Amino acid sequence: MAKATQSPIRSGFVHLALIAYTLIALFPVFLTIINSFKAKNAIFREPMAVPTPSTFSLVGYETVLKQGDFLLYFQNSFVVTVVSIFFVLLFGAMAAFALSEYRFRGNTAMGLYLAIGIMIPIRLGTVAILQGMVAANLVNTLTALILVYTAQGLPLAIFILSEFMRTVSDDLKNAGRIDGLSEYAIFFRLVLPLVRPAMATVAVFTMIPIWNDLWFPLILAPGESTKTVTLGSQMFIGQFVTNWNAVLAALSLAIFPVLVLYVIFSRQLIRGITAGAVK
Amino acid sequence: MGSLQLKSIRKAFGTHEVLKGIDLDVTDGEFVIFVGPSGCGKSTLLRVIAGLEDATQGSIRIDGQEVATVPPAKRGIAMVFQSYALYPHLTVKDNMGLGLKQAGAPAQEIETRVSKASKMLSLDPYLARRPAELSGGQRQRVAIGRAIVREPKLFLFDEPLSNLDAALRVQTRLEIARLHRELKATMIYVTHDQVEAMTLADKIVVLSAGAIEQVGSPMELYNHPANVFVAGFIGSPQMNFIDAGKLGESGAKTVGIRPEHIALSRESGDWKGKVVHVEHLGADTIVYMETEATGLLTVRLFGEHQYATDDVVFATPDRNSMHRFDANDRAIR
Predict the structure, then answer these.
(1) Which of A181, A228, B94, B179 could covalently link to A217 via disulfide, CB atoms 3.0 to 4.6 Å apart?
(2) Which residues are listed as membrane-spanning (chain A) (predicted)?
């Protein structure tokens, strides 16, 4: 298609730029992973070198797996992330549907109110949140984190999803109404499948900050049984001595679950089912 | 089993009134077409009948039953949309059966009704496909099939042919006419295409700016338009409107004459003029001419005629087919 009109030199430059960007983006990840497989003095002597038989060492991974309860930390991170995404998508989609589908007084004002959350960082309210959690007896529980992350993710989710839901054909929803589908059935069975790509986008945008967050786990759930991976890795960073092998190994391990989630969601981004619903 | 009465239906969005008091009676088995220019409120009226919009005021009776507060699914109606509105994740068969399934009909009955409808529309080979795998015409047939399966008291069509190409449009139009004969069901059909209206309808309702201009059979509207709007809207090319004063007609403000009711001659006639443009359509020749007496005049001649731009010709109207309108644009009978 467009290929025929493009000169090889131009497309060559485009590829060059993209490849350069990819290398820059991947370099820190690459560095983290290769160094996690090296002995401690090799990390400092030649940080850029790939592990050779003489410098190869799994000591970092051994430390991580032996010391501390890393499996539990992973589980905590995973539970918090998945449950938060679920609630963000569910409540976000429901609110977006209401805002885009129904005419009611204060619709625009409500939409703006919900979007303000995008502009105001939730961390500004940390002290109040902590007080609230203490009063509700939720400190050191995963519930506390899930509640906070759900609130944090909702504004963007509602903003993106309501825009997408406006594009779903009215005729389709009306056809459902005539066929006797309830408003819930219209929402779950007609609208949600059609905005799946948008849901996947929202899921990815919501997931990464939650998985990487250090702030709220440190403040709301620093207990041993509720530590997340990011918080757990911090114990190898000391005031005087830092166990770099362990830190790098922990971070390398932390990449994989989130990578798996990303692959799952990005598959949903591929459109296809929506074609042919309406002209 | 499918009559409809509308009494002083009004619909306003905010302060903007879209329907200004619609009264209409549709008897069982009638094919009624709402026609009018865009924005005249015909689609809104259909939605009010379907229950997808609430009327601000007025009463809707289907089979003598007041349905103003009844939800769409319980009104005994089925609707076919311009955009087909098929459920993308369901097969053709499930698309057609969903309404019944939702109403709790037994699987056996759904099966028989779906297969009956699919036979009627020759959709049998496509029952297992999804809408994405069908062509536009097939999709619209599925949408019609979905309506048939519900065995409704009223069929509502919202510009069902607008998304189809010209050849398919004619074919689907014939199909709908055949269905109406076979099912003997009451159908209400919205279109802006007067050809569809003339060819399908038992009764045409011409709407303009939220009010009914005239109700009648296609030939009634053609032969006896109630006012200038209907006279101009029905018939193609449009009727010629001539200031009555120029023709020396007393007691009328405007005189209307259809292009097909004017004869042309090179030798003699009532109005002398010059040809401005000629369209050769094979079966018809459309001549546009400028005369001193009438201004621009459109003349439709049957068959092929060799007129060319700048030819001097004489036009003679058929006096018996002239329409006369008063100062309020109403027809004088």
Answers:
(1) A228
(2) 12-34, 78-99, 111-130, 142-165, 186-211, 244-265
